[in-house]
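User: Second chain of the day. Same drill as before.
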Amino acid sequence: MRAAWLLLPGLLAAPVSSHASDPSALWNIVNGQCVPHEQNERDPSPCSEVDLANSAAEGFAVLKDRKGVAQFLLIPTARISGIDDPAILAPTAPNYWEDAWRARYFVEDRLQTELPRDALALAINSSVGRTQDQLHIHIDCVRPDVRDALAANRDKITDVWTPFPVLLAGHHYRAVRIPQEMLDGTNPFRMLADTGISDIGLHTLVLVGTTAPNGDLGFVLLDDHADLLRGDRASGEELLDHTCAVAGK
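Assistant: Same format as last time:
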């Protein structure tokens, strides 16, 4: 056991994959291309959207990811490393999750079909489960088996963080219900931080839309914690389906 813990620093420093050769690639695209193009030409390319809000420090860009048939990424136009960055919990921090959920129509446009609420999900990977050092929220379809598991265990998801009763993608998640149609006034980053954890950077969050049997609209927020000794890098992206099978495509 002592030997395993001695190996942990090395594991934490290991790259997630060989594709992570430039961890600033997303930042360079957004800061070096999308934002200047929007400011100078009112053309966000190669992004699909750039919203600068009151300033570039509070804005975001939406970019089609090269992975997946319809996956998009929401990326702040400020330099923010990821879920481990203290800036996401600042009192005046934008609610990037709200912006990402509103941007889900890019997925539907790409698929040329309207998707049910519970077919869509957002995810952010932990600091040891990502390849880019610029905060980005994945916007894509949810895996069919994850969708089924959430539906089958709907009554076990409450307004309090509770261990989810079955494994998702082979990992232990905990879940909490958000009984709101939109995320106005509710920031998943803050919800996680308010649980009293001290290592938010080692967590991943996944937000899935829900529709209750009575028609009420809401979300399920899922959280996993990295456990490198068990091979869990807390990459919530694993709950997404980049082929969008739920869309029948």
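The chain is about 25% helix and 20% strand.

User: Great, on to the next one.
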